[in-house]
Amino acid sequence: MAGLTQQQVDERIRAGQVNVNENPNTRTVKQIILKNTLTFFNFINVVLLVLVLVAGSYKNAMFVTIIVINTVIGVIQELRAKKILDSLAILTASKARVIRDNQQMSIPTDELVLGDLIFLKAGDQIPADAVVLKGTLEVNESLLTGESDILVKKEEAQLFSGSVITSGQAYCQVIHVGKENYAAKITSEAKEFKRHNSELRNSLNKILKVISIMIVPLGIALFAKQYFLVHDTFQNSVVNTVAGMLGMIPEGLILLTSVALTLGSIRLAQQKTLVQELYCIETLARVDVLCLDKTGTITEGSMCVERVEDLNMLEADWTTEKAMGNLMRVLQDDNATFQAMKKYFKADQSFHLHHVIPFSSDRKYSGAVFEEQGTFLVGAVQFLFPEGQEELKERCGHAAAEGLRVLVLAYSPVMSQENEIPKDLVPCALILITDVIREEAPDTLAYFDSQGVDLKVISGDDPVTVAAIARRAGLKHADQYVDAVTLKTMEQIEEAVGIYSVFGRVTPQQKKMMVQALKKQGHTVAMTGDGVNDVLALKESDCSVAMASGSDAAKNIANVVLLESNFAVMPQIVNEGRRVVNNIRMAASMFLIKTIFSVSLSILTVFFGVAYPFEPIQMSLISACAVGIPTFLLNQESNYEKIDNTFLRHVFMNAFPTAITITFCVFTIMQVCQHVYASTTMLSTACVLVTGWSYMTALKKVYSPMNLYRSIVIGGMQVLFFGAALCFQGILEFKALEFGLIVQVFVLMALSPMIIDAITYALEKGRQMWTKKKIKI
After folding, report:
1. Distances 650 to 647, 656, 767, 774 between C-alpha atoms, Å
2. Which residues are catalytic?
3. Which residues, including other chains, have CB under 8 Å from residue 295's CB and lie 6 or more apart?
4. pLDDT tens digit string along 218-260?
5. How confident is the model over 596-618, as pLDDT tens digits?
6. Closest residue by Cα to residue 239 from 775, 732, 742, 773
7. Helix (H) or strand (E) holding 143
8. Of 144, 258, 575, 661, which is most buried with the most CB atoms under 10 A?
């Protein structure tokens, strides 16, 4: 088979018949720019800018500077992350073995063209719709159809892109490319990462949804009150309304979240970890159950034959070495077990092949049928001999208890048809293989145990062997193991995942069911794996982690890919997630203070006030010194505290007391100024000073306990805020306060920390009483 010529390839490229990836894992430059600029709140900001300019208050248009800076920073950070992640993605990009000009070569799957001749084998994810020309494959199409049955594909059978080869090998011809592929027509889910549920994203969306609903009606009401009822000037009405609406917009919150996640992915990239879904950093930090595939995670994935024990149960004119040598010659398996046997047994060519029985993770055995000899199979004793051979099973059990993987060489003079087990099968020898445990595995397992993460080791091997290896690796409760063959129903699996820590002889479908059972019980589940048999479970988990050395199918479906296949970086991923969530949670509290007090003050102004007491430029000073700059600087801290599923409650508990305190203080000043001083400039001056002071108190409370860095940042912001208020009085529309108002300002400044503490205490007590009441119910 010669394949296409280079001239034919060039013609197809010019015709656009190329297998272009329709679902890249990173956005294009155009998408990044549009995503950061064309937002609902940016649209509101543009409208507010136009209103301020129409009103002729040009200095109050300075708020747009902060918006532009925010947008530019967001674009730059995402472009920076895109460059790094795209360069890393090249290392894990799916490759296809293609035959061109009579030569086999490996090329990226998005360089395939229509009519290409490709070679597929076990572990590959089919890169494009194709038809089998020569060979036989067993295919799992569950990523497309949801059905987990293994389908046999012989010559002239059609293969669908996104399906996974579980066994066999074949030469195939590409019949569809790009968006013409079957997978592209029905869904992009099979080939791109799954966007898992994120509490952080959901919480932020809830906040933004509420603000989006309230901001326009409140803005209209503020303007109508001041212009039509109070009969103030158009300019004053517009300026005060814009100030109120600006306060409601958490303009830097989404930027800060995006930048924090982006920087997190960059830091992980430096640790040779490719993040394919930004929010999975947060999800992994919340994980309370981690499911580990034994091979490639707690073991290196390499194995060696320790010894061979002949059973001498039949007389034959061939030896174990001869039979295994012939099997090694004809079998095309490419797993660690096969490689270990291939190193141990030298290839032999004395038997004439009739047909191969390829390995399948569902069958748990492989073999071959030889003319004039019969059938030779190698696999687990329980699958080759589901009934009988109790003494042999007991012997294998003792070896497995030592941490050895035990395979049985079995023979039958009957020539097996297709792939079924033939009659008169007799065990001939035991092949004892050992795993090499990763050097860093004990420390990594100990870390997760110390963090309260429940570890589940899931493997297709003998449960006794897996338990012994897990014990050597330092897994707690390694003696609590179960044979998944005994788990027949979903109910049994749900019960088992709550009891056992080690699961052996697990099929791919059972792995998926175990993840589903854990999620049903309220757990946040992460799954690590590297093989085709892990794909279903990886796709089902809340956060999936694949090894770069694993199969294309596993890497394509995973949220995170460990580029050096180093399990030891997992704690760093968890810590990065905690850092991101903890910092965003504190920053969100500061942004929400401004939103809550702006909304509350707007409502009070509509019903009881005359005019909103701030101007846009004054809100910009508060936003910059009390929210934007300090949260950006403090977001660089390393905060690795454990997180829970109470993001929104934490943010609200931090923000609400300060927001209500600011509302109370400002409304008090409003009432005094309206009835005593009748000066809007003094009103604004007093309100800005009290608000700034309360915000600084909130910074110290939210970012407690204080350390040197936090003290420097918050102290610097206090100096900057009051320094700007002193030096730029004209621009900020400040006016010297009369003595009575000065006294009121100082009294409110003194009272505000106590009011904040009192409201916090009341909320906490209320929460505790509510929790106790729910428990009693």
Report:
1. 5, 10, 12, 19
2. 293
3. 301, 336, 435, 459, 530, 531
4. 999 999 999 999 999 999 999 999 999 988 988 778 778 888 8
5. 999 999 999 999 988 899 999 99
6. 732
7. helix 142-145
8. 661
